[in-house]
Amino acid sequence: MDSIKGIMKKVKIPESISVVSKFQAEDGTNLKTVQKNLEEKMNEKVKIYGFIGMEVYDLTKENKIEILQIKTYIDKMDALNAEVEELEKQKEELERKAAKKNICACGYKLKPQDRFCPNCGEVIAKDTIVCTCGTELAKDAKFCHVCGKNIEDIMNNQIVAKEVVMKECICGAKVPAGQFMCLECGRKIED
Q1: CB-based contacts of 70: which residues, under 8 Å, 6+ apart?
Q2: Distance set, CA 43 to CA 15, 28, 36, 52 (Å)
Q3: DSSP state letter for 69
Q4: Helix (H) / strand (E) containing 9
Q5: DSSP assignment of 21-64, as one string?
Q6: Which residues contact 50 (CB under 8 A, 6 or more apart)?
Q7: What span, in angstroms and rounded, lies between the C-alpha atoms of 105 and 98?
Q8: At what angle do helices 2-10 and 31-61 cross, to 10 degrees?
Q9: Please, are residues 101 and 111 in contact by the beta-carbon 8 Å criterion?
Q10: β-sheet bridge partners, residue 128
Q11: Cα gap 113→120, rounded to integer Å
């Protein structure tokens, strides 16, 4: 539907008609008024062609009509739909890969401790754990490969630390101690 509106905006009257003069018809209309009316009618025509096209496409896909003359256009539309679907899958895959490399979907390079993107504010989904020594580890790891700490102990300490240092905002959101603003509602947090 949006593409039809774009096409409608691009419809122009042929140059031979667009010459504006001060001549008027006997009924008082001038060339400019006629040109405007003609452009409106051309836009209506493009709109109707768009609706006809969408209706014919839908009916063809539902096997309710078969028009051999438009089969090539239907095939082209199906090929475009398949390409769009493939591109959407590629986009999702690239976004997943970017998330694993600590890069936000907006392209900002994240730090291991970031829970929100500092550039766009997006919530960062983590498949990793940050050890107390600062090393980023996979969630299924048993020990830190840098300092040797047990990951289960690190997880338990992080859970306890979160419970101890969290405050509750008026809106009900949990806010870490030391944070001066609620990320949910934007209120200033009083100590």
Answers
A1: 56, 60
A2: 16, 24, 11, 14
A3: G
A4: helix 2-10
A5: -S-B-TTS-BHHHHHHHHHHHHHHHHHHHHHHHHHHHHHHHTTS
A6: 1, 3, 4, 7
A7: 7
A8: 150
A9: no
A10: 138
A11: 16
Burial profile 82-108: b = 16 or more Cβ within 10 angstroms, e = fewer: eeeeeeeeeeeeeeeeebeebebeeee
Report residue 44 as tokens: 């209506």
* Owner of token pair 């001038």: 30
User: Residue 135's Cα: distance from chain center in Å?
Assistant: 33
146's tokens: 């840098």
Q: What is the DSSP string of 76-97?
A: HHHHHHHHHHHHHHHHHHHHHH
Per-residue tens of pLDDT for the chain, all 191 residues = 455 555 555 555 454 444 444 556 666 667 778 888 888 888 888 888 888 888 888 888 898 888 888 888 888 888 888 898 888 888 888 777 665 667 777 778 877 777 788 888 887 766 667 777 777 777 778 888 888 888 788 777 765 544 446 778 888 888 777 777 887 888 887 76
Let me know how long the chain is.
191
